[in-house]
Each structure stands twice: as C-alpha cells, then as structure tokens.
Amino acid sequence: MRTSLYFFILTVFIGSCSHKTSDSMGDRSKTNPSPTDKSEQTKKGTGDTGVPSNIEPDLTVSLKKTACFGKCPSYEVKLYEDGRATYQGFAYTSKKGVYEAKAPADLYKKIAERARGIHLNAMSAQFPADRKFITDIPQTISFIRLGGVEKRIVDNFDAPADLIAYEKFLESVFDSLDWSAHK
C-alpha cells in the first residue's frame, strides 16, 4: 500500500511538472512577440503604441530578474523621470520587499549612453530569437525609453555579450543606490 501511494504521488508530481513546462512555453511564446513586432519598440505618443499597458508613462528604465526552479534572485528595479527609483525584492535577494532611492541626476544619461553605445534599440526583442526558452532558468527583462522610443528585451539565454554587459551594468548601477525600506 505504501509503495502504491509513493508511486501515485510521484506520477502526479511528474505529470504536473511536464504540464507546467508546456504551459509556460506556450504562455511565453504568446507574450513575447517576434523581433519585428512593433509592440516592443514604438514611438512615444503615436496613438496605438502596442506597448504592454503595464509600462508606466513616467518610467525610463527597468530591470527585472524572474524566478527559476532553484534559488535565483528575483526582483525588479525601476527608474523614473523624476529620479525616483524603486526596488521590489521577491525571492533570494538581500533586500526583500519594497525599497526606494533617489538616483543621481546624471544616472539616466549614463544608462542611455550605454544603451546607445550598444545599439540596444536595434537588438531583438527576445533571446533566443527563435523563442525556444528554457523554462527552469531565470529571465532578465530590461526596458528603456530612449529618445521617445520604448524598448523591452527578454533575455532567457543566448544573448549577445553587449546585452549581457549592459544588464550587468544596470545591476551595478542600481546596486550602488542608497536604498531605504518603503514605509
């Protein structure tokens, strides 16, 4: 009886894992348009921009690390036009919860120069470009509003070295801010 119970639990667990994986793959392919889809790069104020509605109008830069099936840091950092920065730590980070900081006046300029230097707006909207995501590794999702153009890139793996360096640059810049817990 005990062996049967273990076998049943194992079968349910394995079945649910493979079901989640196929659902996740399907969901990602629906929410991550192709590199030529205008929704990932649009002019500000052109009416139907196609940009996901969750992008706040005064948001200039963001970086998000998603969860994985292990102990990957999961958080989101946002920089706004007024220099305000917010951090929300979800899991496996030194800061959990919501934090705020005031960014130096030239921070956006530094980030924008780096983005222009690597031609971020010309990059694919997702990596790998063929949408064959690996569901058990984290994604890095970066966003920037650059010269009236909004660019969002989903990096699962196989991104160019310039993009990876840009993501690490954003991490170090945001890590250097003086964060205080949101009250």
Task: Please provide a written account of the structure.
The longest helix is centred in the N-terminal third of the chain and has 30 residues. The protein has three helices and nine strands. The termini are far apart. It is globular and about 40 Å long.
Q: What secondary-structure arrangement, pairings included, does this model have?
A:
Blueprint: H1 2-31, E1 41-43, E2 59-65, E3 74-80, E4 84-91, E5 97-102, H2 107-117, E6 126-127, E7 140-146, E8 149-155, H3 161-175, E9 180-181
Parallel strand pairs: 6-8
Antiparallel strand pairs: 1-8, 2-3, 2-7, 3-4, 4-5, 5-9, 7-8
Helix pairs in contact: 2-3
Structural class: alpha+beta
Tell me the fraction of residues in β-strands, as a range. Answer: 25-35%
Amount of helix: 25-40%
Number of DSSP-assigned strands: 9
Number of helices: 3
- The rough form would be described as globular
H and E string:
HEEEEEHEEEHE
Query: Could you report the average pLDDT, rounded to the nearest whole number?
Result: 77
Largest sheet composition? 9 strands, mixed
Weakly predicted, low-confidence segments: 3-53
Radius of gyration computed on alpha carbons: 19 Å
Gap between N and C termini, in Å? 54 Å
